Amino acid sequence: MSTKLSERLREAIEEEIATGRLLPGTRLDELELAARFEVSRTPIREALSLLAGEGLIETAHRRGAVVAQITPERLVEMFEVMAELEALSARLAARRISDAELQELERLHEECRQAAELRDTDAYFYANERFHYALYASAHNRFLCDEAVALQKKLRPYRRLQLRVRNRMRNSHAEHAAIVQALRDGDGEAAVRCVRSHVLVQGERFADLICRAGAGDRCTAALAGRVMRVMRAMPQARGRRAPRGSL
Predict the structure, then answer these.
(1) Nearest to 126 by CA among 104, 106, 108, 102
(2) This model's pTM is above 0.70
(3) Tens digits of per-residue pLDDT, 196-213?
(4) Residue 141, by phi and psi: left (phi above 0), alpha (psi -120 to 50) or beta?
(5) CA 100 to CA 172: how far, in whole Å?
């Protein structure tokens, strides 16, 4: 029970960090959080431990747990590296994926489709996460898989939030379809192109979302503006158009 509660608390705090409600450097007091969420300190402590493992919070000398200093520039850099880790995973998977692994990827792709049809962002997020983990495993490179999973955990709240942008689940599912087809064909270059674009556009959709969420919040709007400026300065962004219907 406590573990499930700590997971829900982690996700609630993740969202507040991702949307800028909890700003970098904010002290996370266990007693205050326990009172706010109306729970005991134990699940709060467990949730903070999970967040520390993801790199979203840090332990500061004499201050305890604080929100990590992740600037918009750093966030965009993380999405860039995530895109390359996943692209390499896709390139290797195109050569190494087994029939059983391909079937599992197709099954997870179907789970995503069902969640998208129901417009269930939470269900889609979890199915999508399993889809990406299956892609990493299909590369049959344990070091690469470990690195991809570690960075995926750091980007988890931001990848989750971008699914709330209008039509994002539908577009994400279509992008998955292209990835699965490339792997089915054993086309490494196509798989790389599809995965790289799929991950980079998530950063753009996250910026779109916080632009909307921060319409009446100067702090969040400023964060969104900085993320968008950095995204537009990226060479990949200048040479790629956003998917139709994403906004």
Answers:
(1) 108
(2) yes
(3) 999 887 766 666 655 554
(4) beta
(5) 23
